[in-house]
Design brief:
Layout lengths: L1 H13 L1 H10 L4 H22 L8 H28 L6 H14 L4 H13 L4 H25 L5 H25 L8
């Protein structure tokens, strides 16, 4: 079973649609999706702690808040991918979308270490090749996301899903910017 799991992770990078198809053929439940999310959270926390040099002890409130944010983001993304896909003729069920999104989160954790290194290079301003690696990992993640959603909705092509995903991302970023700007004190300069 573990060997099949690892093989499906590798397949997610070689042929993400086949990986999603194989996963969906097993008819996973929402409990399976939640288990994948829990494992995603644990792996992400581990990589974050390794990259931070293993801080003394985890903050329980921070862990709970992080898990809550992951679940909230998962719920929002699932509903958006399901609803938008259905508007474009997608045939995937809400469960199918939830399962492939949970699988996306878990499968992309294999890129976790290089993603964290790229984010750290961006944060510290050291730049260089690690920022390029970060951009490549984000591109691979987007491609896998679109392929998983296309497979779950039974769309023939991945390209339009990438276009809609990028468009929705821009809209959400603009809305968040407006929301954040509404809470900022106009007399305080951003440093």
């Amino acid at each position: 079973m573990f060997a099949a799991f690892i093989a499906n992770i590798f397949q997610a990078y070689r042929d993400p649609r086949a990986s999603a198809r194989a996963l969906l053929s097993r008819r996973p439940t929402m409990v399976d999706a939640m288990a994948m999310l829990a494992l995603t959270f644990a792996i992400s926390e581990f990589f974050g702690r390794v990259m931070a040099g293993f801080p003394a002890s985890p903050n329980l409130f921070g862990l709970v808040a992080g898990l809550f944010l992951l679940l909230a983001a998962f719920g929002i993304m699932t509903m958006l991918a399901y609803t938008i896909g259905a508007k474009f003729g997608g045939k995937g069920s809400l469960r199918d979308i939830a399962v492939v999104l949970a699988w996306h989160g878990l499968a992309t954790q294999a890129m976790g270490p290089v993603t964290y290194l790229g984010l750290d290079a961006l944060r510290t301003g050291t730049g260089g090749p690690m920022v390029l690696v970060l951009l490549v990992s984000l591109g691979v993640s987007l491609w896998m996301f679109a392929a998983f959603i296309a497979e779950a909705h039974r769309f023939a092509r991945v390209g339009p899903v990438i276009g809609v995903t990028l468009g929705a991302t821009v809209v959400v970023m603009l809305l968040v910017s407006v929301l954040v700007a509404g809470f900022m004190d106009p007399g305080v300069a951003v440093q």
